[in-house]
Amino acid sequence: MPNRDLSPQKLPEFMREGVCLDVRSPGEYRVGHIPGALPMPLLSDAERAQTGITYKERGRDVAVQQALVWAGPKMAAFVEQARRLSTGRPLILYCWRGGMRSHSMAWLLQQAGLEVIVLEGGYRNWRHFIFDVMASWGKWVVIGGPTGSGKTRLLHALQEKGEQILDLERLANHRGSAFGALGLSPQPGNEQFISDIGWAISGMKRGRRIWVEDESSMIGSLHLPEIVVGRLSSSRFVYLQTDPRRRIRELVDEYGHLPKWELEDSFRKISRKIGGQYLNKALEALNGDRLDEAAGIALRYYDRAYARSLTSRHPSGGLLLEWGEHEDAEQVAHRCLRMIQGKGSQTKCFISHQTLSTEVKSIPAI
């Protein structure tokens, strides 16, 4: 038996000093694993599948015997790999349920003199824990606003001031629009995305504020957990209002260096929503190096879409934060903190969902 078991609640703290090893099959690891865990599969995908068949057809004892036959010749390699990865640090192992696979590997490595801990309940218990984390940790403050308003820039400026942030777009590896995947590597799978969200929150201080950018239920191809969607719509809401000219500059700075054919493909993805006339204008602007004009056409579409979704996501409205013409992100973050703490004076300190929709619709396309 291993030295001791570790609860999922203690895992983030342990990972600062220890090494986490996933002994499930390679396929299970690829679908989703604890962030930072390294793969050390006891069985291959084919071996695991056959063991499952044997268990159903011939019972547990025969299936265990078969698994031992496959794992036996690998024992020396397991010890060598674990010793190399640990570099003197304690090891924590997990399988799906914290059962036979992790305890068998833990016994082997313990016999080799390594310090070993098993994650209590395995990956399944970890999933239960992170859903609880997503539902209950922190007091969330949601930053909303139309495309290009600088929400992500503000989020990171708040982090620089010592605030806790949950950057969902970074975890999703997508900026959340038809153009959002441009210049980025592929997105993770949905199971891994959920695990990454839970891990990010579990490393934060439970009673403190968490800032998060407003998102719809999907970021690119990934679905946000319903718990997260619910917290986004029910948490305190700050609407960031930015001059359209600044927003266009923001988009050009972010996407203007990319190949034109990629930008054209992204415009074609929304062609039915912006209409053929505006699609042609956007493509002509791109080919004529008039990136400001193309960005203005994109904002026309995204502003309408955001206005439609705003009332359903934030029916109670929220606080209005205007990004001044000559302000940088640090200054806006400072005012944002004062506003959320009830300090300072605001010309508009509260804005209803009806006014939000009106203001978003009135932003001109340039």
How are the secondary structure elements laid out?
Layout lengths: L3 E3 L4 H4 L4 E4 L3 H6 L6 E2 L5 H14 L1 H12 L3 H12 L4 E4 L5 H12 L4 E4 L2 H15 L2 E6 L6 H10 L3 E3 L1 H5 L17 H13 L6 E5 L4 E2 L2 E2 L2 H9 L1 E7 L1 H12 L4 H10 L1 H4 L1 H12 L3 H23 L5 E5 L5 H12 L12 H10 L4
Helix pairs in contact: 3-4, 7-10, 8-17, 12-16, 13-15, 15-16, 16-18
Oligomer: single chain
Taken from the alpha-carbon principal axes, the silhouette is elongated
Q: How would you characterize the largest beta sheet?
A: 5 strands, parallel
Structural category: alpha/beta
Percent range of helical residues: 40-55%
Give the distance, in angstroms, between the N- and C-terminal Cα atoms: 68 Å
Portion in beta strands: 5-15%
Main sheet: which strands, in order across?
A: 1-5-4-2-3
Average residue-wise pLDDT: 88
Number of domains: 2
Give me the Rg, rounded: 25 Å
Which stretches are low in confidence, meaning pLDDT under 50 for 5 or more residues running?
Answer: 359-366
Total DSSP E strands: 12
Total number of helices: 18
**What is the correct CATH architecture of the largest domain?**
3-Layer(aba) Sandwich
SSE order, one letter for each helix or strand: EHEHEHHHEHEHEHEHHEEEHEHHHHHEHH
CATH topology descriptor of the largest domain? Rossmann fold
Description:
With 366 residues, this protein is of the alpha/beta class. It is 53% helix and 13% strand. The protein is built from 18 helices and twelve strands. The chain has helices at residues 11-14, 26-31, 45-58, 60-71, 75-86, 100-111, 122-136, 151-160, 168-172, 190-202, 226-234, 244-255, 260-269, 271-274, 276-287, 291-313, 329-340, 353-362; strands at 4-6, 19-22, 38-39, 91-94, 116-119, 139-144, 164-166, 209-213, 218-219, 222-223, 236-242, 319-323. α7 (122-136) packs across α10 (190-202), α13 (260-269) packs antiparallel against α15 (276-287) and α16 (291-313) runs antiparallel to α18 (353-362). The chain starts with a strand and ends with a helix.
